[in-house]
Amino acid sequence: MIVIKTRQPDPELEQKIRMLLEREHIEAEQISIGSQEKLVFPGLTLDGMTHEVSCNGRKTSLTRLEFDLLLILASHEEQVFSKEKLFRAVWGQNCDDTLKVVANTVSNLRKKLADCGSFIRTTHGGYTFRGKKENNPE
């Protein structure tokens, strides 16, 4: 016969876990964007409502994940995002190959965007988007 002794939950530990989970949730919300936002840069337009991207007047076909990744970067211009933070924001989870998945998606995105792919910059520890935002045409 095996007797399992249960331990009373540690309220202090539970509080720390709750605080960490809340902080992660807040960080994820900070990098979300409005789905109807339209971003216009010199040569690059992203339409959050129609999920269309055009580079130098030519429509570019992106997967949903590629579009979401580009939209997050472009809507937070000049902000550096770690690969882990981007993965959580776009894929919504973590996995063992987080760094590879993000790097491969960014590489594919740059290829599809051709000249406009240079807006996505690799930085120490992650990626950033550098472009000069233009006024939104209504």
Automatic annotation (TrEMBL):
GO terms for biological process: regulation of DNA-templated transcription. The keyword Secreted does not apply. One of its GO terms (molecular function) is phosphorelay response regulator activity. It comes from the Bacteria. Keywords: DNA-binding, Phosphoprotein, Transcription, Transcription regulation, Two-component regulatory system. SMART domains: Trans_reg_C. This is Response regulator MprA. It comes from Faecalibacterium prausnitzii. The gene is mprA.
